[in-house]
Amino acid sequence: MSDRWLKFLVLMTYTLYFSVACHPIKSLQTTKPSVPPASPPMQRSLTPQKTSQNLKDDQLVDIQVINKNILLDIRYATSNNFLKKKLYPSARCVLRAAVAKRLSQVQASLQEQKLNLKVYDCYRPLSIQKQMWKVLPDERYVANPTKGSRHNRGAAVDLRLVDATGKELQMPSAFDDFTVAAHRNYSGGSAQARNNRTLLENAMAKHGFIGLTTEWWHFDALGWEKFPAIDVPFNLIPPITLI
After folding, report:
1. Distance between the two ends of the chain, CA-based, in angstroms?
2. Does residue 94 register a pLDDT over 70?
3. Cα-flanking dihedrals φ and ψ of residue 228, to 5°?
4. What CA–CA distances, in Å, run from 9 to 2, 20, 23, 156?
5. To the nearest whole number, what is the mean pLDDT of the chain?
6. Are strands 71-72 and 115-121 parallel, antiparallel or unpaired?
7. Taking a C-beta distance cutoff of 8 angstroms, is the pair 213, 186 a contact?
8. CA dihedral 202, 204, 207, 210 (to 10 degrees)
9. For 168, which DSSP code?
10. Long-range contact pairs involving 207-210 (C-beta distance under 8 Å, separation at least 24)
11. According to the model, what pLDDT value does residue 212 have?
C-alpha cells in the first residue's frame, strides 16, 4: 500500500473518531403519555341523615317536620291569649319525637274523614309556665310550675279540629276560655259542638292521648311522666330536617 493511501486511511479514521466523540448517539427513550393526577376520592358527609325512624323518643322536634299537614295557630307566639302578650319568640309546635309521631297518626286518621288538626300550643318552657301561674294560679287550668306541666315536658298538646279547607269546627267554647263551658262534661251549647268535642277526644284517645277534664283542647300523651320538665328556650332547640 502506498504512503498516500496509508495517510488517507489514517485521516479518515481520525475524522470518524472525532465525529462520534463530538456527537454521541442518544439512547432511545420511550416517552410515556402525561397522565393527570388522580382525583381525590369523594368524601361522604359525616352528618348522619335523619329519618323519623331514627329520632330518639325524647328528642324535641317540630311537629310539621313529622307531619306538614298539621296546622299551627300558636297563640302564645301572639298577643291573642289570656295574658294578652307575646310569650314565645316564634310560632313553633315542638314535641318529644315519640309524642309527635303519635299526633301524626291522629292527623292521618282524621284526613280519611276530610278533617285536620290545628295546634294552639305544644312544648312550653318552664319559665313561661311561671308567668302564667302568676296571672292564673288555678290548677284546673294552669299547672303549678313547682310540679311542672305536661307542656313543660313536651308531652302535651292543645288543639282543635278543622275541615279540609282549614275552617274551624264548632266547639263548646273558645280556646283558653276558663269557664265550665270548656269542661269535657259540659252539656250546654249546641249538639254539633258537643259531637265535635267527642270526635276529637275519640281520635286522640285512639292513639294514646288523654284529655284534661277541664279543657276540651288539652291532651296529655300516655307516658308523659318519663320526660322531665325543662326550661329550654325555643332558640336553643335546633330545627331538624328529615329525609
Report:
1. 102
2. yes
3. -75, 150
4. 11, 17, 21, 116
5. 86
6. parallel
7. no
8. -100
9. B
10. 207/102, 207/103, 207/105, 207/106, 207/109, 208/102, 209/102, 209/103, 209/106, 209/157
11. 98
Per-residue pLDDT of 39-71, as tens digits, reads 444 333 333 445 667 899 999 999 999 999 999
Encoded amino acid at 161, one letter: L
Catalytic amino acids?
A: 215
Distances in Å between the alpha carbon of 178 and those of 122, 145, 196, 219?
19, 18, 19, 16
Q: Which residues pair with 168 in a beta bridge?
A: 162
Q: Look at the block and give the residue holding cell 486511511.
A: 9
pLDDT digits (tens, 9 = 90+) for 187-242: 999 999 999 999 999 999 999 999 999 999 999 999 999 999 999 999 999 988 78
DSSP 3-state of 98: helix
Other beta carbons within 10 angstroms of residue 140's beta carbon come to 13
pLDDT of residue 10: 46
Look-up of cell digits 475524522: 15
Total-model pTM = 0.79
| Dihedral sign computed on CA atoms, order 196, 202, 204, 209 | positive
